[in-house]
């Protein structure tokens, strides 16, 4: 019977002949088949995955060491291009669209030996926090199918949570990897802005988007990051900084105790669930007891982060989504018209879902002449202030911690007020506004029985510290 | 019209779009060649497929800077692109990526001819942007067809201050811009193929008035002639409108080349809100002084400089100098010849005379003209020494040299027996023979009909079969006839 305890163990088992890639793929295909009600996948590449697994098995004999992701079974959020495969952003407007090229991250996964098992359900164009905005239906949390898995990368989180793949690639614009990881009790990493090429990632908000990784084991997440990160000729916003061997550096523990900050206002926030507050404070005490310096810092900008985030991301989204007009590809309304404006209106009204339309309208509004300075310019100022503040904090601290989400996974259909849903992003959008890396670690269990996590953030491009610190946290919490 | 020319002043600002002659597009590697089959130069990036990203073509930036340096602009150090958002089917991404806030070239000026004078037209800016695709409305009865080959082609937009005052100045300005972009090798300047396009902002105001009048924008002027015609029409239209008690409306108009008239296409009230914001998919780019300086050093000498040099150092007339600076190929050729020959004036005369004529007749240009500068320098020297006459050189030697790149002028002259005789003994024989052939004329000459000298020279030429140096012959005849 196949079981997965990390890529390193899996590779050993492959080399020792204890398992095969085909066996692994069957295991995950069974997982998918048994949990179809969770609706994690939009499309499963069954035959293809089995064929590639067979090919990898055939090439195995005689190999001393394997490519980093050899035979690793990975699912990708349906906002990431995989050549000759469907790509819809869970939107009706791209229902039958097939990608003509591979995203850089996908190309690197394939080059490292990975098996892509399917594309995963998500909120339409990655807009949402509960995976209730998909043209392919809602996704359910494997820990409690009556509850949401979080979003927007809900399918990708549930696929890892429910043993439907070893790793998933999601995307994180304001928490879309960390928040569902929190709700599903797994690890969710959002790397620094510019650490992973965005080429092939469907844009929601270009200056915020980042491909992220879901996994059950920190080493696996570090390894996947190592594979997909780095310079790319197709993305001029990606960093040219060399990619450290994250998975190896993870093993070396710090000589000095960590200096860790948390925002006073974050833990005192009225929206924070009492149980989450309590367990987070208890963990801070544990860290202090373990010799680390944990200190509250004043962060009076907290109330501005969500508004600034939604002004800037919707502005970018309104422009990024203009290309979906029914002219070149994608959905075109069957209703005939001779008027160009009507043509656009029909295609886009019928093709997009409600949340996407809301954000396109918001973004168009904040960029309109007459409102531009009051909203867009102001939000850009907030973003600059946040970046300055962040730089100052990381002058004194190695990391900032906070709850990932103010409350655990809620019931499906329970929340419908968009403002309330937006405000729940309060802890995650900060990392996207400032471009720093963040990770959600599954350390806790809520009295409701649902898992929840802690978020760790470090300075920009400092994934090495982020991952080592995460390792320490997992060990302290006895989760590793 | 002349009735009003003292009353009104015309104010014109021009926006010229020049397609940069880079092999690939502004933000991806797709080819930019003109005339390819529709939609064959379109990768997923050009088509704005989901997930694609732009990447700036460095050469396009360099080309824009070349133009900026040639126009004396200030080159902007910190640059970024912005998105200009609007929906149109030939705009694949739903926005145009353009340098809205930070044009790579700021200010500057262009020297144009205005009447008998030259004057500077101030530039507002030169900025980079991408072109859109082409909508073709007459290919199908029901549908509009779109060719995205052109989408993403790099453009520079060259924007003047409202500094031009006549249609003719506008004509001169666009002519100068076309010469400059060709000179710099950054655009083929071909208006018929749309490589160079012009929009004109035209307004009128009472003479002496400081405030600008309401402007009308005339779009898509696809020849220099049309720029002139459109402005001429607009000025008359506006003056007549105002004189008849009307007011000029701010609007966009289009030019109909069949009737030389303009017609309104949209009023300003319908103007788009383009919702510009910084392009988040492209990192801002910094231009170092060293980079700009390197481009400056790589520029060829510009027509303005050469005009001065030709007149002041080489003693050419303004007209001849201007002829040589008509295009870079001609100037390059002249420079190559004068680098090895100091017959500056003769070289200019040859190039603007028989050689230009040969080139025109054979539909060549100096870029592919077979005569080497060395061959021409040799020919100039033979003429200068008096070894061959100009007409023999132009009609007999030049065609031979053009046919045979390795032939030199002396060889050809010798082979064809064209070298002039300057040996005084031999010349004297022919002179004596000529005079004795025409005793009557000699008598008439001696009585004062000095004009007959030409007749005697002609006779010597005949006797010598053209080989006698006419200058020496004339001197000798004058001596004999004293």
TrEMBL record, chain A:
Cross-referenced InterPro entries: Amidase, Amidase_dom, AS_sf, GatA
Major enzyme class: ligase
GO MF annotation, one: transferase activity
EC number in record: 6.3.5.7
Reaction equations catalysed: L-glutamyl-tRNA(Gln) + L-glutamine + ATP + H2O = L-glutaminyl-tRNA(Gln) + L-glutamate + ADP + phosphate + H(+)
Gene Ontology biological process terms in this record: translation
Domain Amidase as annotated: residue spans: 23-467
Active-site positions on this chain: 77, 152, 176
Listed SUPFAM superfamilies: Amidase signature (AS) enzymes (SSF75304)
GO CC list: glutamyl-tRNA(Gln) amidotransferase complex
Gene3D superfamilies linked to this entry: Amidase signature (AS) domain
Keyword terms of this UniProt record: ATP-binding, Ligase, Nucleotide-binding, Protein biosynthesis, Transferase
Statement: the UniProt record of this protein carries the keyword Transmembrane: no
PANTHER family reported in the protein's UniProt record: GLUTAMYL-TRNA(GLN) AMIDOTRANSFERASE SUBUNIT A, MITOCHONDRIAL, TRANSAMIDASE
Family: Belongs to the amidase family. GatA subfamily.
Subunit structure: Heterotrimer of A, B and C subunits.
Described function: Allows the formation of correctly charged Gln-tRNA(Gln) through the transamidation of misacylated Glu-tRNA(Gln) in organisms which lack glutaminyl-tRNA synthetase. The reaction takes place in the presence of glutamine and ATP through an activated gamma-phospho-Glu-tRNA(Gln).
Entry protein name: Glutamyl-tRNA(Gln) amidotransferase subunit A
Organism: Deminuibacter soli
Designated gene of the protein: gatA
Automatic annotation (TrEMBL), chain B:
UniProtKB keywords: ATP-binding, Ligase, Nucleotide-binding, Protein biosynthesis, Transferase
Name of the encoding gene: gatB
Name of the featured protein: Aspartyl/glutamyl-tRNA(Asn/Gln) amidotransferase subunit B
Organism: Deminuibacter soli
Enzyme class: ligase
Coiled coil: none
Lineage, highest ranks first: Bacteria, Pseudomonadati, Bacteroidota, Chitinophagia, Chitinophagales
GO MF term set: asparaginyl-tRNA synthase (glutamine-hydrolyzing) activity; ATP binding; glutaminyl-tRNA synthase (glutamine-hydrolyzing) activity; transferase activity
HAMAP family: GatB
Entry similarity comment: Belongs to the GatB/GatE family. GatB subfamily.
Reaction it catalyzes: L-aspartyl-tRNA(Asn) + L-glutamine + ATP + H2O = L-asparaginyl-tRNA(Asn) + L-glutamate + ADP + phosphate + 2 H(+); L-glutamyl-tRNA(Gln) + L-glutamine + ATP + H2O = L-glutaminyl-tRNA(Gln) + L-glutamate + ADP + phosphate + H(+)
């Amino acid at each position: 019977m196949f079981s997965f305890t990390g890529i390193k163990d899996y590779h050993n088992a492959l080399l020792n002949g204890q398992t095969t890639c085909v066996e692994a793929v069957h295991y995950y295909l069974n997982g998918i088949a048994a949990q179809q009600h969770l609706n994690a996948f939009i499309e499963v590449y069954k035959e293809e995955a089995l064929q590639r697994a067979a090919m990898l098995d055939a090439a195995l004999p005689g190999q001393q060491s394997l490519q980093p992701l050899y035979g690793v079974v990975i699912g990708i959020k349906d906002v990431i291009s995989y050549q000759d495969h469907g790509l819809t952003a869970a939107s009706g407007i791209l229902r039958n669209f097939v990608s003509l090229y591979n995203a850089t991250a996908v190309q690197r996964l394939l080059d490292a030996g990975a098996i892509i098992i399917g594309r995963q359900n998500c909120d339409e164009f990655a807009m949402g926090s509960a995976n209730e905005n998909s043209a392919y239906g809602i996704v359910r949390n494997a820990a409690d199918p009556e509850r949401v898995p979080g979003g927007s990368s809900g399918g990708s989180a549930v696929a890892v949570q429910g043993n439907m793949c070893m790793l998933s690639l999601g995307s994180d614009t304001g928490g879309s990897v960390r928040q569902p990881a929190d709700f599903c009790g797994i690890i969710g990493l959002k790397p620094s802005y510019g650490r992973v090429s965005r080429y092939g990632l469907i844009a929601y908000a270009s200056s915020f988007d980042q491909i992220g990784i879901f996994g059950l084991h920190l080493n696996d997440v570090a390894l996947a990051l190592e594979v997909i990160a780095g310079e790319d000729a197709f993305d001029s916003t990606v960093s040219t900084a060399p990619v450290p061997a994250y998975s190896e550096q993870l093993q070396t523990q710090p000589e000095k105790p960590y200096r860790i900050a948390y925002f006073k206002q974050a833990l005192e926030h009225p929206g924070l669930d009492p149980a989450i507050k309590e367990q987070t404070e208890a963990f801070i005490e544990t860290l202090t007891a373990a010799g680390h310096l944990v200190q509250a810092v004043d962060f009076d900008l907290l109330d501005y982060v969500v508004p600034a985030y939604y002004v800037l991301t919707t502005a970018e989204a309104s422009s990024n989504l203009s290309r979906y007009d029914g002219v070149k590809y994608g959905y075109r309304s069957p209703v005939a018209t001779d008027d160009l404006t009507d043509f656009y209106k029909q295609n886009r009204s019928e093709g997009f879902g409600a949340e996407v339309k809301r954000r396109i309208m918001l973004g168009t509004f904040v960029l309109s002449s007459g409102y531009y300075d009051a909203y867009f310019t102001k939000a850009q100022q907030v973003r600059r202030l946040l970046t300055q503040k962040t730089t100052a904090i990381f002058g004194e601290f190695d990391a900032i911690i906070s709850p990932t989400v103010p409350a655990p996974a809620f019931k499906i259909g329970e929340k419908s007020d968009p403002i309330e849903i937006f405000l729940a992003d309060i802890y995650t959008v900060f990392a996207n506004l400032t471009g720093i890396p963040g990770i959600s670690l599954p350390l806790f269990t809520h009295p409701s029985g649902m898992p929840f996590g802690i978020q760790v953030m470090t300075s920009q491009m400092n994934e090495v510290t982020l991952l080592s610190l995460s390792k320490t946290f997992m060990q302290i919490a006895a989760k590793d | 019209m002349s009735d009003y020319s003292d009353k009104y002043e015309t104010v014109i600002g021009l926006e010229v779009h020049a397609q940069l002659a880079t092999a690939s597009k502004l933000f991806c590697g797709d080819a930019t060649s003109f005339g390819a089959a529709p939609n064959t130069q379109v990768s997923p990036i050009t088509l704005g497929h989901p997930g694609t990203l732009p990447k700036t073509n460095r050469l396009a930036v360099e080309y824009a800077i070349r133009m900026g340096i040639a126009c004396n602009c200030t080159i902007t150090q910190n640059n970024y692109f912005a998105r200009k958002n609007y929906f149109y089917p030939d705009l694949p991404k739903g926005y145009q990526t353009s340098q809205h806030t930070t044009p790579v070239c700021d200010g500057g000026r262009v020297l144009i001819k205005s009447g008998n004078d030259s004057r500077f037209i101030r530039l507002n800016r030169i900025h980079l942007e991408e072109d859109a695709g082409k909508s073709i409305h007459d290919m199908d009865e029901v549908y509009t067809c779109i060719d995205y080959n052109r989408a993403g082609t790099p453009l520079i937009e060259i924007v003047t201050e409202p500094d031009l005052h006549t249609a003719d100045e506008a004509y001169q300005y666009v002519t100068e811009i076309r010469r400059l972009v060709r000179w710099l090798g950054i655009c083929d300047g071909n208006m018929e193929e749309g490589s160079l396009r012009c929009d004109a902002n035209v307004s009128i105001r009472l003479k002496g008035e400081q405030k600008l009048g309401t402007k009308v924008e005339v779009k898509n002027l696809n020849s220099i002639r049309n720029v002139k015609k459109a402005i001429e029409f607009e000025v008359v239209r506006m003056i007549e409108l105002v004189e008849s008690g009307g007011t000029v409306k701010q609007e966009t108009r289009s030019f109909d080349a069949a009737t030389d008239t303009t017609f309104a296409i949209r009023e300003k009230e319908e103007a788009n809100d383009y919702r510009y914001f910084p392009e988040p998919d492209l990192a801002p780019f910094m231009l170092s002084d060293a980079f700009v300086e390197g481009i400056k050093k790589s520029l060829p000498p510009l027509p303005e400089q050469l005009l001065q040099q030709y007149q002041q150092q080489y003693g050419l007339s303004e007209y001849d100098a201007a002829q040589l600076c008509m295009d870079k190929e001609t100037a390059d050729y002249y420079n190559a010849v004068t680098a090895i020959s100091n017959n500056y004036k003769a070289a200019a005369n040859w190039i603007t005379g028989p050689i230009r004529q040969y080139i025109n007749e054979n539909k060549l240009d100096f870029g592919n003209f077979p005569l080497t500068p060395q061959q021409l320098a040799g020919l100039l020297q033979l003429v200068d020494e008096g070894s061959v006459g100009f007409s023999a050189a132009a009609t007999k030697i030049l065609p031979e040299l053009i046919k045979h790149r390795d032939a030199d002028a002396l060889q050809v002259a010798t082979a064809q027996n064209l070298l002039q005789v300057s040996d005084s003994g031999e010349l004297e024989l022919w002179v004596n023979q000529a005079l004795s052939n025409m005793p009557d004329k000699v008598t008439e000459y001696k009585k004062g009909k000095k004009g007959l000298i030409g007749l005697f020279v002609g006779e010597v030429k005949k006797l010598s079969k053209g080989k006698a140096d006419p200058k020496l012959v004339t001197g000798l005849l004058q001596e004999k006839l004293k």
